[in-house]
TrEMBL record:
Assigned keywords, A-Z: DNA-binding, Sigma factor, Sporulation, Transcription, Transcription regulation
Keyword Membrane recorded: no
Protein name: HTH cro/C1-type domain-containing protein
Pfam families found in the cross-reference section: Sigma70_r2 (PF04542), Sigma70_r3 (PF04539), Sigma70_r4 (PF04545)
Organism, scientific name: Nocardioides endophyticus
Amino acid sequence: MTNSDDGADDGLTGIELTRKRSADLFVILRDEEGSEASHAAAREDLVHLHLPLVEHCARRFRNRGEPLEDLVQVGTIGLIKSVDRFDTDRGVEFSTYATPTIIGEIKRYFRDKGWAIRVPRRLQELRMQIGTASAELTQSLGRSPTPRELAEAIGCTVEEIIEGIESSNAYSTLSLDASDDSDDGAASMLDAIGIDDEGLEHVEIRESIKPLLDRLAPREKKILLLRFFKNMTQSQIAEEIGVSQMHVSRLLNRTLEQLRTSLEEES
């Protein structure tokens, strides 16, 4: 026998049925007069109902060297947090609210798992703040927040927000030995690399030196740029800036020693 509620649902799509079921479960979960058992059951049903959303979010990160099953487990933690924090009075779809939290949890997992490039602690902490603020603003605004709105909520500049978002590029990337599982015998990424890029070993050093270079006087900075980025000889540099080759040598040695000392102090 089919009851009237089932008949009313016959014309709904799968997405609409999920939304209706989700709304009904949140009514049970938030019912202050309901029993602890009914709350627990509704909470569990909500998690199971939205697991496809977690799997969808996890697949966005499947090529970063971590098993999809692990990403789903981590994303489920974000889903549970979303269920517990969701405010039905905001008038926002639960999936809209939960998605940034799920993705934030997965990204946090990558952050804790390791970085391909050392990222300053302030950026790692800023990314966590962005994830939290994004989830809260998405629920209150009914849409994804802009960088300026995030900056105002966190109390920083728009440039810092953008820098924090872009820092996700420093996560561990796909293994060079990985290949497409659907194509047996397919070449790995390593097979497509002709030679090792020796410059990669110095990325961290270059990033650490950048702020030190900004503190140099214009002439010393120009000498370094001409010598190490344009590969000019000391004689060519001397002619370029209008001093003797010996003077260029002294300035170069002094500047390098200054950078070395500053770098050791920063470390």
